[in-house]
Amino acid sequence: MQPQSLELSGIGKGFGADDVLKGIDLSIRPGEFLSLVGMSGCGKSTLLRIIAGLETPDRGSVSIGSSDVTDADPSDRNLAMVFQSYALYPHMTVRQNIATPLRMRRLSLAGRLPLIGRIAARADILREIDAAVTDAADVLQISHLLDRKPAQLSGGQRQRVALARALVRSPAAFLMDEPLSNLDAKLRAHMREELTGLHRRLGATFIYVTHDQIEAMTMSDRIALMSEGRIEQLGTPDELYQRPATLTVARFIGTPSINLMPVEITSAGRIAAFGREFGIEVSTNTTGPATLGIRAEDLHPVRNGLPARISRIETYGADRFVTCHLIDDQSVKIVMRQHAGDSADTAIDGMINLGFTESRTHLFGVDGKRLDISVREREAV
Questions:
Q1: What domains can you pick out in the chain, each with its CATH number?
Q2: Which of 93, 153, 160, 338 has its CA 20 to 30 A from that of 42?
Q3: Residue 17: helix, strand or coil by DSSP?
Q4: What is the sign of the dihedral through the CA atoms of 199, 202, 205 and 208?
Q5: Neighbours of 275 (CB within 10 A)
């Protein structure tokens, strides 16, 4: 089946006094891998359930392709959902688990035929189902597991069975609700590769819910980052990392988390903190307090930078992360990324002067929204 687009318009949903979704507008392209990401309680799973038809929106509409399915039953939407819990039948073999959605759908249709036609149709349908199961198992490389039961499978194998059960239906889109969260870190990384490879091979539309920004960043064509029932930013992984639209996005995207420093926008439109001006100017007519965001890789030791005391040093293979606290404000924690082989003189409880690449900083106003900046002559503090 051809991949389908999905259109969400003005989706609102409340539970009691809590407004969980506050007017979501989202267009999902045919064949796109789009992730809904955000902290627990932001509304991403509720939005996925509304797309699937498992929840009814209080307002707004859902369209698949050119069809409005807002009031359609889940079974009439031709969407395949993969859950966190796998939801496999323990008494059935892998083959039977994969075949279940097809058997339920196709055999129920055959049951409406006259008796003679029903028997012939049933035989044809069973052959078609068996062929579809074999094809799905081949795609996910679980053909050798078809006669086993779920209890005999590893976590990764169970997840592949759940994916095969979704794949066998040839759905308009795949909906996935944190499908990898039950796996250990190594297997989760492996399954990320498998999912992105499966998406490329199928060319299908994937809508993927996760609270793990690494999953979203490594697998998605685009990310819709949600917060408090709204979409904070929609864009490619690079767009969210390189130009976060809000402070919420900047905090959520990136490992380690972005460094945040309180600054002041002077009457001349320049950025200052701790009695010094940086080479950064605001493009709009704004003054007052603001927050400067600096990624760990954009920090470096300099001769006349911000004085800080080193509190922690962690080495992860080729990277070393140096955690410092500013002398001028001990509440400001800064993490700097260095190459592990860097010869810089750093030691716990030692002093360091921090500089940063000003053209790569991010400035946010008191409302948390991004402010455009420009950089004067020099590049670093």
A1: 6-242 (3.40.50.300), 256-375 (2.40.50.140)
A2: 160
A3: coil
A4: negative
A5: 6
Contacts of 178 (CB under 8 A, 6+ apart): 45, 84, 209, 210, 211
Residue indicated by tokens 């003679």: 116
How far, in Å, CA of 284 to CA of 89, rounded?
59
Q: What DSSP letter does each residue of 234-290 carry, written as one string?
A: EE-HHHHHHS-SBHHHHHHSSSSPPEEEEEEE-TTSEEEETTEEEEEEESSS--EEE
Instruction: Quote the CA–CA distance of 248 and 233 in Å, as a whole number.
Output: 10
pLDDT in tens, the chain (381 residues): 678 899 999 999 999 888 999 999 999 999 999 999 999 899 999 999 999 999 999 999 999 998 999 999 998 898 988 887 778 899 999 999 999 888 776 554 444 444 444 555 667 777 888 888 998 888 888 999 999 999 999 888 888 898 888 888 778 899 999 888 877 888 888 888 888 988 998 899 999 999 999 999 999 999 999 999 999 999 999 999 999 999 999 999 999 999 999 999 999 999 999 999 999 999 888 899 999 999 999 999 998 899 999 999 998 888 999 999 999 999 999 999 998 777 566 789 999 999 999 999 999 999 999 999 999 755 444
Give me the phi and psi of 330, to 5 degrees please.
Answer: -65, -20
Q: Kind of pairing, strands 222-227 and 319-326?
A: unpaired
Burial (CB count <10 Å: 0-12, 13-18, 19+), residue 238: exposed
